[in-house]
Amino acid sequence: MSNINDLQDHLIGVYLNRQMPKIVKAEGIYLHDDQGNRIIDASGGAVVCSIGHGVEEIAETAAKQMKTVAYVYRRAFHSPELEAAACKVSEATNGDLDRVFFVSGGSEATETAIKLARKYHIDAGNPSKFRVISRWQSYHGATLGALAWSGFTSRRAEFTPYLKDFVHLPPTYCYRCWYGKSPDSCDQECARALENEILCLGPETVSAYIAEPVSGYALGAAFPPDEHFRRIRQICDKYNVLMILDEVMNGVGRTGRWFAYQHHGVVPDIIALAKGLSGGYYPVGAAVVKTHIFDTIAAASGFFGSGHTYGGNPVGAAVVCAVIDYLKEHNLVERCAAMGEYLASKLEALKIHPTVGDIRGRGLQLGVEFVKDKKTRESLDPQLQFYQKIQDEALRRGVHIESSGGCNRGQAGDLIVFGPPFIITEAEIDEMVGIIDNTLTAVEKETGF
């Protein structure tokens, strides 16, 4: 039998040449490693842990379901838990989107959304509609299809030879508008670009448009003005293009509303969900569609042959039900909105630092972008790996914060993203931001600012 100290020799992680901390316990907003250190989970993992770590009733729900029915194959069977979970998700949208296809995670959710759009057009008698339009500096997942639609250049780079060539528009990135405009002076050029691209490709070939309402690590919680998605909705309707919003990170409360599309006064045709859908307690995702999409497919072929082996798992469904109930019982979506406002106000104090260029986001999904020059918004030298230095130093001081590079056209740009559990308190936010403040001071000194 292997010695416990040798077990890591058999593991492939993200970083093959770094020793990673070993987390042996998690509770509330805290992680505890095997060295006795307590770490504030400022990013909620990868912006996943919404209700906090170690909630006993969620664990008990999963254990009970495993003892009852741990697995059935969706192609042959459904389960009461799966039907109940679909109902709860639909109710959370206020019935805006009414049919739910459960999957195993976020990448599968976005791919399923695209496949549903394609299947809808085929069954509606428009088989020529297959093209997908997305944006640069977006991220829709790590599988090859999802990565092809993504515009996160650093994550695409090594796998580009395997990716199908799809269209990417300029991002909705007001801090660095690719059109050289500002929100108070633009004419929604980034939205109008969609119509131009549809016309260039031929409306008869375009199936769907996919976007994140609030960006993840590619742009550090950037989001467009509310009018943007209203314009997108009009364009999609005009050319019979399905509007898909990737709410894998945003959905189920993260932005301070149940779903981020609700900030914009529009309803997409399909949303992709994961992360907060289970709060990190089980790998589960979903594609949620408007009724007419389901009805069209049901009346024509009556078949949607997609999904991975573990999609529609009854344990995952039971966890989804329990997490949605927990969010409602404890008013955590409302709490997320309130704590998001408080965190945003505390982050404003970081603007005294010479490298803090922009602070943005919604609810408890907030990003900080670092620059070399605040006036010109020139990015830091990517060779510095400033973002990684921030993440490493913060961890040494007791805060886990996720960071990313390449927000400036994939060539440069450093940022961190906050996504703590909704249960975080004002005192805990004060401590967390205080540590980040001291971390920035140390890293700025190290790098010559």
Compile the SSE list and pairings.
Blueprint: E1 23-27, E2 30-33, E3 38-41, H1 44-47, H2 56-68, H3 80-92, E4 99-103, H4 106-123, E5 131-135, H5 144-149, H6 153-156, E6 167-169, H7 189-201, E7 206-211, H8 226-238, E8 242-246, E9 270-273, E10 285-289, H9 291-299, H10 314-329, H11 332-347, E11 356-362, E12 365-370, H12 386-396, E13 399-400, E14 402-408, E15 412-418, H13 426-446
Parallel strand pairs: 3-13, 5-6, 5-7, 7-8, 8-9
Antiparallel strand pairs: 1-2, 2-3, 4-10, 9-10, 11-12, 12-15, 14-15
Keywords:
35% helix, Aspartate Aminotransferase, domain 2, Aspartate Aminotransferase, domain 1, 2 domains, four-stranded mixed β-sheet, 13 helices, seven-stranded mixed β-sheet, 449 residues, alpha/beta, single chain
Let me know the average pLDDT. 96
- CATH fold group of the largest domain: Aspartate Aminotransferase, domain 2
Percentage of residues assigned to helices: 25-40%
Helix/strand-derived category reads alpha/beta
The domain count comes to 2
Whole-angstrom Rg: 22 Å
Strand order in space, largest sheet: 4-10-9-8-7-5-6
- Spans of at least 5 consecutive residues whose pLDDT stays below 50 are none
Anisotropy-based shape: globular
Q: Count of helices?
A: 13
- Examine the secondary-structure arrangement and name the CATH architecture of the largest domain: 3-Layer(aba) Sandwich
Distance between the termini: 51 Å
What would you give as the CATH superfamily of the largest domain?
A: Type I PLP-dependent aspartate aminotransferase-like (Major domain)
- List how many beta strands DSSP finds: 15
CATH class of the largest domain reads: Alpha Beta
The run of helices and strands is EEEHHHEHEHHEHEHEEEHHHEEHEEEH
DSSP strand (E) fraction? 15-25%
Largest sheet: 7 strands, mixed
